[in-house]
Amino acid sequence: MTGLAAALAAHLPGFLARQRWFAAKGRPVRSVAVATEIPLCTGGEPYLDLVLADVEFDDGSPVQTYQLLVGRRSETGDELEHVVIGRFDGWTAYDALWDPAVTTWLIDAVRTGVEVGGVQFVPEPDAELAEGVPGRVVGAEQSNTSVVYGDRSILKLFRRVVPGLNPDLELHRALRAVGSTQVASVQGAIEGTVGADGQTATFAMVQNFAANSAEGWAMALTSVRDLLAEADLHADEVGGDFASEAYRLGETVAVVHSELAGALGTVERDPGEIADAMLVRLGVAATEVPALAEHADAVRAAFDAVAGLDAPIPAQRVHGDLHLGQTLRTPYGWLVIDFEGEPSAPLAERVRPDSTLRDVAGMLRSFDYAAFHQLLAWQPGPNEPDAQLSWHAHQWAARNRDAFCDGYAAASGDDPRAHAVMLRAFELDKAVYEAVYETRSRPTWAPIPLASIARITTEIAREIDTEIDIDTDAGVS
Questions:
Q1: Alpha-carbon gap, residue 263 to 190, rounded angstroms
Q2: CA distance 185 to 371
Q3: Which residues make Cβ contacts (< 8 Å) with residue 35, sequence separation at least 6?
Q4: Per residue in 86-101, pLDDT tens?
Q5: Tell me: the pLDDT tens digits for 399-426?
Q6: Are 202 and 166 in contact (CB under 8 A)?
Q7: CA 35, CA 472: separation in Å to the nearest integer?
Q8: Any idea what DSSP says for residue 303?
Q9: Helices (H), 342-386
Q10: Does domain 214-469 have CATH number 3.90.1200.10?
Q11: Pairwise pLDDT comparison (98 vs 388), residue with the higher score
């Protein structure tokens, strides 16, 4: 271990715990060790090292590896004080993505295609990267850190690093190869190797920056807010009605799915295998979220219905973690972003072909979240929400869920609602995951997925009862 690695290791536990992108907040950390230290800039201040830190936990769960670009200066100004890692041996070590000198060096290195210490800075063919513009950190992200360069480029540093090609880079390259206009085209990447066996890894990627864009989640929240403020109007009567945008977004997602299928092919999966994975996740979740107990049998029955399907399920590469926060509305249309998949899932699971209905279900869940998150913001606390406001939230969610499916069906020729057994199972699977996440991280939000689980299982039960009534009536002579 070098002197820098040893000095950093003493400061990293406290630094990591303060970062929004550190995914293990609240878990007891056993140790933090510098696993990799690669000098990138050594000719004078600021010095720059790519550092991979291994985090071990007291519960014996798998080690997590986090990436930092560590800058060192003998003196730092106030503008870097909030990202200081520690001071030692006459140096101040800090998160270098906040240093304009470093961000300028990074984009230049990708544009010119250099290799330093085994780290490859790789431009995409014919890509036009920003030049002569320092970067500024985007403050909204949680799991990664992005740096914007003027109105041309955005660099995303992946904070969690695992061996293998990051699916975000992989799928963006595939979509660029088929000329997709539904995503921000990839411009380049930073790649290298990790571990004793030298497996490839993705450290960062650079894309076209979608200037003058708005995030889908923020747009949806504004629409819900406008509706709740007009208690005597229906969703289609409010100026901020989102349904037309939801329709266009459905079209965009369908086109992305078609492009991914064309670029990377399709396969088939056994519905029983998909159902088994859902049942395993439900079993784990039920031990952590007691409130799931009253719904567990109904959810299990929905998953069993998937296992009972008698035909293989078409599968392909999908987004894997699709929601309104993974979309941008530009002046020219919608873009889908962040193809990493579910960050907590193993890489092998994230790159496995899946049903496109998983992405559709993720977006349908997001419309529910937008409606009822805004309702909670209006009426925080344990009291039951106002009945009229609650009715409006339900109306907004249902209207936009339908509009999204209408748009998806128009672009793909296949209405997701025609696959009710699979679609509802994917929705329930996502809601079960959300219930665990919210219970751990934001307990006041846990009622949102739990209410959705109750709604979906009630709808299924009502339809089953209706079918029984119809069969009974048909048997009466």
A1: 23
A2: 31
A3: 52, 53, 54, 65, 194
A4: 999 899 999 999 999 9
A5: 999 999 999 999 999 999 999 999 999 9
A6: yes
A7: 67
A8: H
A9: 347-350, 357-378
A10: yes
A11: 98
Retrieve residue 454's tokens.
């109750």
CA distance 345 to 148: 28
Strand order in the sheet with 327-330: 214-215, 327-330, 333-336
pTM of the model: 0.91
Q: What is d(CA 470, CA 201) in angstroms, rounded to the nearest whole number?
A: 57
Residue in this structure with the two tokens 């190797």, named with its chain if needed: 193
Q: Tell me, letter by letter, the H, E, C secondary structure of 260-271.
A: HHHHHCEEEECH
477 class by beta-carbon count within 10 Å (0-12 exposed, 13-18 middle, 19+ buried): exposed
Among 177, 167, 7, smallest CA distance to 92 is for: 7
Q: Where are the alpha helices (DSSP H) in 205-356?
A: 216-229, 243-264, 271-288, 293-307, 347-350
Cis peptide before 46 (omega within 30 of 0): yes
Measured in degrees and rounded to the nearest 5, phi and psi for residue 324 equal -60, -30
Residue 471 structure tokens: 């069969």
Q: DSSP for 18-39?
A: T-TT-TTTTSPEEEEEEEEEEE
* Domain boundaries along the sequence of the chain: 101-208, 214-469
CA–CA gap between residue 307 and residue 431 (Å, rounded): 19
**How many residues are listed for the chain in this entry?**
477
Close Cβ partners of 168 (under 8 Å, ≥ 6 residues apart): 156, 158, 202, 205, 338, 339, 340
Q: Would you say 268 and 315 are in contact if contact means Cβ atoms under 8 Å apart?
A: yes
pLDDT digits (tens, 9 = 90+) for 328-354: 999 999 999 999 998 778 999 999 999
Tokens for 188, please give them: 């380049």
Q: Is 363 exposed, middle or buried (0-12, 13-18, 19+ CB in 10 A)?
A: buried
CB-based contact 372:448 (threshold 8 Å): yes
CA 346 from chain center: how many Å?
14
3-state SS assignment for residue 371: helix
Sheet of 119-123: strand order equals 115-116, 119-123, 186-194, 199-208, 153-158, 144-149, 136-137
For residue 380, what pLDDT is reported?
Answer: 60
Distance CA 184, CA 164 (A): 22
Three-state DSSP state, 76: coil
DSSP helix/strand/coil, 120: strand
